[in-house]
């Protein structure tokens, strides 16, 4: 028997897709087996998220991670040394207790999530199996429905468009492979439309195009045209998915839509989004209202939850307690699961399981600041989440994840199912 006790955990500074430093953790077992993982970072963050430990001063605009790396090298490594790798929950509990703060400000959410993920990698390596299989065991899993950005806006594109993510979903595809193929067709068609119109400005943080639109509706119209140009049927084969990220422009019940020069209250937002739902084949809307507007969420979900997935991201911050409360209140019907919002994999998993128990859609999601780390792809498959959101084609830190799911799908051969329509909570309820 090889010795699966932890020898050491090391932290190192690496760089993310926005040119900012981030934290990599590397776990070494006594057997010599290693596992490593890198923490991602958000730009549009919820106030209830685990906090990254970042160093002040002018170095890298005050974004350095020296203290988070030191926390791994010193406290975390000492606290975990000698522990067996088998029990992720016990190891995560140890990290949580060691930090001792609600918002993870002492060790840093970035140090904790990198360590938590690296522990899982080490365990999978010790068992000589892929990470997703380590999580799923012998349970059957299906490949996730991808949610892929075509246009970026909001905090990821200097707020050129108010809405943060204009994405598509291909629930009628037969497989993950085919869903990715269809999405690529739409992506290329959208790029051609923007070039022709002279509105292409570049690539946004998550790999979607950065367009110069004059209204949010223009983005939706262009997206519809791109779906048609790709030879696909909007609403039947391909649907639209939006992340409004409304906390970025809404506070205290007021929403300032800069692009359109409009200021709306909650009811105005609900009415505007309801109008979009009438006119466009929208299957999913994330954070339609701000995190401080729970009654707005409730009214929105009451009005539209029967025909649209309503996702809480900043609103729920991957917190099982908040997911439970939202299920009781009826304020969303889906939860975005971002491990670094929670701080550890066990807490992220608890949020997902709580969502599933409530009949919610569950979407494992990357952050806008990412790296070559593909852990998230394995979590989506291994936890059988149903949906995955990691950004789009023009950025390889995103494609690394999608391509990893292709590999997993191929490895399963005819065993590999695809979540398709079943991933969407309002479709399952029918
Ligand atoms: O809001 C989101 O869902 C994510 C990913 O799109 O963005 P960020 O990582 O900046 O929070
Ligand atoms: Mg979001």
Automatic annotation (TrEMBL):
Enzyme Commission no: 4.2.1.11
Keywords assigned by UniProt, alphabetized: Cytoplasm, Glycolysis, Lyase, Magnesium, Metal-binding, Secreted
Domain Enolase C-terminal TIM barrel: 140-426
Binding sites annotated in the UniProt record for Mg(2+): 243, 286, 313
Positions of the Enolase N-terminal domain: 6-135
Localization per Swiss-Prot or TrEMBL: Cytoplasm; Secreted; Cell surface
Pathway stated in the Swiss-Prot or TrEMBL entry: Carbohydrate degradation; glycolysis; pyruvate from D-glyceraldehyde 3-phosphate: step 4/5
Catalytic site: 206, 338
Record note on cofactor: Binds a second Mg(2+) ion via substrate during catalysis.
Keyword Plastid in annotation: no
Reaction catalysis annotation: (2R)-2-phosphoglycerate = phosphoenolpyruvate + H2O
Binding-site positions, (2R)-2-phosphoglycerate: 164, 338, 367-368, 389
CDD domains: enolase
GO MF annotations in UniProt: phosphopyruvate hydratase activity
Cofactor: Mg(2+)
InterPro entries linked to this entry: Enolase, Enolase-like_C_sf, Enolase-like_N, Enolase_C, Enolase_N
Any single Pfam family the record assigns to this protein: Enolase_C
Family stated for the protein in its record: Belongs to the enolase family.
Task performed by this protein: Catalyzes the reversible conversion of 2-phosphoglycerate (2-PG) into phosphoenolpyruvate (PEP). It is essential for the degradation of carbohydrates via glycolysis.
Name used for this protein in its record: Enolase
Organism: Variovorax soli
Gene it is expressed from: eno
């Amino acid at each position: 028997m090889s010795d699966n006790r932890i020898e050491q955990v090391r932290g190192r500074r690496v760089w993310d897709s926005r040119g900012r430093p981030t934290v990599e953790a590397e776990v070494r077992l006594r057997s010599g087996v290693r596992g490593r993982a890198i923490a991602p970072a958000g730009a549009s963050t919820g106030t209830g998220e685990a906090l990254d430990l970042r160093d002040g001063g002018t170095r890298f605009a005050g974004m350095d991670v020296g203290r988070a790396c030191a926390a791994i090298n010193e406290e975390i490594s000492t606290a975990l040394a000698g522990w067996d790798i088998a029990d992720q929950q016990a190891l995560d509990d140890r990290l949580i207790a060691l930090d001792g703060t609600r918002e993870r400000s002492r060790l840093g959410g970035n140090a904790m999530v990198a360590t938590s993920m690296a522990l899982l990698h080490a365990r999978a390596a010790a068992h000589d199996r892929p990470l997703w299989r380590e999580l799923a065991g012998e349970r059957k899993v299906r490949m996730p429905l991808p949610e892929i950005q075509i246009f970026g806006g909001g905090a990821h594109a200097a707020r050129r468009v108010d809405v943060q993510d204009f994405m598509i979903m291909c629930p009628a595809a037969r497989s993950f492979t085919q869903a990715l193929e269809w999405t690529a067709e739409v992506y290329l068609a959208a790029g051609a439309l923007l070039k022709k119109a002279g509105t292409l400005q570049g690539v946004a943080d998550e790999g979607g195009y950065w367009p110069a639109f004059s209204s949010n509706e223009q983005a939706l119209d262009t997206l519809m045209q791109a779906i048609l140009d790709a030879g696909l049927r909007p609403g039947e084969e391909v649907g639209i998915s939006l992340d409004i990220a409304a906390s970025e422009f809404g506070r205290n019940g007021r929403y300032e839509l800069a692009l359109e020069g409009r200021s709306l209250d909650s009811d105005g937002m609900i009415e505007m989004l309801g109008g979009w739902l009438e006119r466009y084949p929208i299957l999913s809307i994330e954070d339609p209202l701000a995190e401080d507007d729970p009654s707005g969420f409730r009214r929105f979900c009451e009005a539209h939850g029967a025909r649209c997935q309503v996702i809480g991201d900043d609103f729920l911050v991957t917190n099982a307690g908040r997911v439970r409360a939202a299920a009781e209140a009826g304020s969303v019907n889906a939860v975005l699961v971002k491990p670094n919002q929670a701080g550890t994999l066990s807490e992220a998993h608890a949020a997902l399981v709580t969502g599933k128990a409530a009949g919610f859609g569950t979407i494992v999601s990357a952050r806008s600041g990412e790296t070559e780390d593909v852990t998230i792809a394995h979590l989506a498959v291994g936890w059988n989440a149903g949906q995955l959101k990691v950004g789009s084609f023009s950025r390889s830190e995103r494609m690394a994840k999608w391509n990893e799911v292709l590999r997993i799908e191929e490895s399963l051969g005819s065993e590999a199912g695809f979540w398709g329509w079943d991933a969407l909570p309002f479709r399952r309820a029918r």
